[in-house]
Amino acid sequence: MNADRGAFAAALAAAPAEGWLTDAQAARLWSAGVRSRPAGAAVEIGSFRGRSTVVLALAAGSVVAIDPHAGSDRGPQEIAADAGRGDADHDAFRANLAAAGVAGRVRHVRRFSDAAHADVDGPISLLYVDGAHRFGPARSDLRGWGDRVAPGGTMLVHDAFSSVGVTLALFAVCAGSREWRYRGRTGSLAEYERRAGSPRDVVRHLAELPWFARNLAIKALILAGRRRWAERIGLDRSAPWPY
Question: Which end of the chain has less Cβ packing within 10 Å, N or C?
Answer without folding.
Answer: N
